[in-house]
Amino acid sequence: MAKDKNESPEQEILEEKKMETENTSEKKAGEDSANETDNVEMLGKKLMEMNDKYLRLSAEFDNYRKRTLKEKMELTKSAGEQLLMNILPVVDNFERALKSMDTATDVAALKAGVDLIYANFKDFLGRNGVKEIEATGCDFNTDVHEAVTLIPAPTPEMKGKVIDCVQKGYFLNDKVIRFAKVVVGE
Q1: CB 132 within 8 A of CB 168
Q2: Is residue 81 part of a domain?
Q3: 51 lies in a domain?
Q4: Mean pLDDT over all residues of the chain?
Q5: What's the number of CA atoms in the CB half-sphere (13 Å) around residue 26?
Q6: What whole-number distance in Å separates Cα of residue 70 and Cα of residue 82?
Q7: 97 CB contacts (<8 Å, ≥6 apart)?
Q8: For the chain, how many structural domains are there in total?
Q9: Domain membership flag for residue 174
Q10: Which of 23, 35, 99, 151 pairs with 50 at a CA distance of 20 to 30 A?
């Protein structure tokens, strides 16, 4: 910059300060753009890392879901298998009873054998959580009984009570799996 002879020393100082400020501003602008570029690169890397983590977590969850579904299916199959294995002795006893019916002459002994098989089967059901619903003589309860018909009560105290059970009902671990079909006195 050419110095003008008419310029005062104060103006020269102001001009120099202005030049220094412009140079500093240019340097800062260059540094700021470099910093912004670094920040953008750093954010891009973070985004890629987070995206990678997300994809891995998503895949891991999908594998977990598939594995647990497969385990549930296998558990259901094996639980049914165990139940059937426990019922096979009852089936064997029924086959023996049927075979002995052809040659049996003593009806009382045959009846006793069938009663034993029935007791064995009821014991099997009890071990697996199946209980019979009490019906005859009990108050009619829509939560466990299904009224098939209403008949006049034989006595006044039998009104609203179960007179007869047409079909037994059953609980499985305190959940009704079959309602008892009953005749109710009115």
Answers
A1: yes
A2: no
A3: no
A4: 85
A5: 6
A6: 18
A7: 110, 113, 114, 117
A8: 1
A9: yes
A10: 35
